[in-house]
Amino acid sequence: MTEKKAERKRGLGRGLSALIGEAAPLGTNPGANSKAGAGDSSVATTGNGLRMLGTDQLQAGAFQPRQNFDADELKALAQSFGKSGILQPLVVRPLKGATDRFEIIAGERRWRAAQIAKLHAVPAVVQELSDSEALEIGIIENVQRADLNPMEESQAYQRLIDEFSYTQAELAEVVGKSRSHIANLLRLAQATRGMRDLLVSGALSMGHARALLGHPDADALARRVVAEGLSVRAVETLVGDKSGDRAGKKPGGKSAKSDAKDVDTRAVEKTLADALGLKVDIRHQGDESGTVAISYKSLAQLDGVIARLLSNS
User: Which residues have a Cβ under 8 Å from the Cβ of 167 and sit 6 or more positions away?
Assistant: First the structure.
């Protein structure tokens, strides 16, 4: 087994919650209005690896998948920290070749906001982590918080494959997504520059991009999608991909599901499925009520759904 393969096997499945679980919980709120000396890492130490570290002792991680940080969101988070402090510690590892310096594995957004709030120290869990673990944890945290745009997520998965020999099946297990979701994201590597810019800005969804991949006029169509607010289904029709219409058709051209679900319902199912990476089933029960069922194949996938729902509460 190669060194990279062995490193990947050690890191596989060691999620963010497992790492934070190794440290004692924060009994108080040490991040609130902390005016400890910026370079004084001995301000507070609790639990196994949980410490207060000066903001100037930290630096952005080399394996951070997130590349875009919204300035307004950082300011809002900084205001929250000024009132309530940092409730969730960062995850960091010692910086190689340096003394009392640390690389951020998870929590760069919190670190940036803490600096805006002029907090001198932040709570952090210090762990010895391999490169593959660092990248894996960075992806898991951001994906579960829905913090990555589709291009960032795609590039992070591709990096795990290229640098640490992950398979798509292993990626699906680690991040709690379906294999088809992973495969569709990896296909975004074929996106044009114009499509990538729109994906990063959030103007174009993964479903839209997937329908446009390989089209000779993809950039022009992408701009039209944004300008006219076209649905994914409309884009599929526009580019001539009517596979969604053909699915489930009976002889004679009628859809086998036409009596149960209309086009709008199936479009909403597809939008939710693209966002969650899991199968979604919507059933109407009367004019205004119904059920939404989300299918998962592992507890990791269920944890990912729960984390997303709680992050928006």
Answer: 161
Whether 7 is a known active-site residue: answer no
Nearest to 114 by CA among 60, 77, 66: 77
Q: How far is residue 178's CA from residue 276's CA, in Å, rounded to a whole number?
A: 9
Query: Given 108, 133, 170, 236, which residue is catalytic?
Result: 108
Stretch 53-76: mean pLDDT: 84
Q: What pLDDT does residue 253 have? A: 44
Amino acid letter, 221:
L
- Summarised one tens digit per residue, pLDDT across range 132-177 is 888 778 777 766 666 678 888 888 888 888 877 888 888 888 777 8
Distances (CA, A) of 252 to 200, 239, 242: 43, 24, 17
Give the pair of three-digit tokens for residue 136: 């894996």
Q: Residue 32 has which token pair? A: 């609130």
- In which band, very low, low, confident or very high, does the pLDDT at 296 lie, cut at 50, 70 and 90? confident
The whole-number pLDDT of residue 270 equals 78
Which among 22, 130, 110 has a CA at the least distance from the CA of 66? 110
Q: 159-166, long-range: CB within 8 Å, 24+ apart, which pairs?
A: 159/65, 159/135, 160/132, 160/135, 160/136, 161/186, 163/4, 163/131, 163/132, 163/135, 164/4, 164/7, 164/8, 164/11, 164/131, 164/132, 164/135, 165/2, 165/4, 165/5, 165/8, 166/8, 166/12
Q: What is the pTM of this model?
A: 0.54
Q: How far apart are CA 230 and CA 207, in angstroms?
A: 11
Distance of CA 242 to the CA centre of its chain: 30
CB-CB contact of 69 with 50 (8 Å): no
Q: Which amino acid is at 54?
A: G
Matching residue, tokens 């001539």: 240
Q: What is the pLDDT of residues 11-39, one digit of tens each?
A: 444 444 444 444 433 433 444 444 333 33
Q: Going by CATH, does the domain composed of 3-134 fall within 3.90.1530.10?
A: yes
Task: Indicate if the pLDDT at residue 109 is higher than 50.
Answer: yes
